[in-house]
Amino acid sequence: MLGHKLCQVLSAESVTFTTFRAAAPDLAPFYSRTEPIAGVDALEFDSVSDAIARARPHVVVNAIGIVKQRSNATDPVLSISVNSLFPHRLAKRCADAGARLVHFSTDCVFSGRRGEYVEEDTPDPIDLYGRSKLLGEVARPGVLTIRTSIIGRELENMTGLLEWFLGNAGGRVQGFARVTWSGVTTNFLAHTLARLIRDAPDLSGVVHLSGPAISKYQLLVWLNEAFGTKTTIERDDAVVSDRSLVSDRFWSQTGFRRPNWSDMVSELAVEARMYEGIANARR
């Protein structure tokens, strides 16, 4: 979800190498300006090390992970290998190469019992995904670990909230009115990361990056309006969770402008035709 958007945005500003486990896909809007390196697998760390040696990067961005929506997310060996061990191995390799590392963590390091979590709060994850991501957080000089949560378009798998919602266009879906969320769009995160690389080269440690807290129900209402999907959203008050993050420290340290949902959702909708064209071309 995030990787292709990072490639699209970052390659417009600087030389960007993109790693792929297999051959690079032919998706011009996202990868045409990047330098592909194929055959790179987090489970085969020598391939990662070789890619870093080839690219000689100033910054490495780790956008891979085993997310909870995937069918293999219940595999503890895979989750711990990729989400927990790999970021620390990568951080050491980046330090040896003199490169900065940006790594993404998740709001799921918190249980969701309370909400409005700040960086100083003690994490209390309740599932394998949250625990494995917590173990993978790197707090050392030269490494920026960003706790966040995202929504955005996907090129494959289609397991995220937005693709699920668009896949049910015109039908009926449930919207959780008591599930509070404070994520951002992949578009916003990619552009923010580009600014971080350019304007905040010394920012390190574990930081929260979040948008305005909203309910999942309200988010679906806004997506319905922006995409014109004419979907019936049934309000559900049974499920209760609040993993909202407070990111005052991030905005204060960077001086960046906080996002708003009107702009973020509108930006997603503007790209709808591009993604439809890609999907049609791949059929």
Distance between the termini: 19 Å
Strand order, main sheet: write it out: 3-4-5-10
Q: How many β-strand stretches?
A: 13
Number of domains: 1
Largest sheet: 4 strands, parallel
- On the 0 to 100 scale, the average pLDDT is 94
Rg, alpha carbons: 18 Å
Low-pLDDT stretches: none
N-to-C SSE string, H for helix and E for strand: HEHEHEHEHEEHEEEHEEHEEHHH
CATH topology: Rossmann fold
Q: Choose one word for the global shape.
A: globular
List keywords for this structure.
single chain, 283 residues, alpha/beta, Rossmann fold, 4-stranded parallel beta sheet, 3-stranded mixed beta sheet, 13 strands, 18% strand
Explain this structure.
The protein has 283 residues and is of the alpha/beta class. It has a single domain (2-154, 184-213, 244-260), classed as Rossmann fold (3-Layer(aba) Sandwich). It has 11 helices and 13 strands. The chain has helices spanning 2-10, 28-31, 45-55, 76-97, 128-135, 161-167, 186-199, 216-227, 248-254, 261-270, 272-282; strands at residues 17-20, 35-38, 59-62, 100-106, 143-148, 150-151, 172-176, 179-181, 184-185, 205-208, 214-215, 232-236, 241-242. The strands form 5 sheets. The chain has a 4-stranded parallel sheet with strand order 3-4-5-10, with helices on both faces. A 3-stranded mixed sheet has the order 11-8-13. Strands 1-2 form a two-stranded parallel sheet. The longest helix is centred in the first third of the chain and has 22 residues, at 76-97.
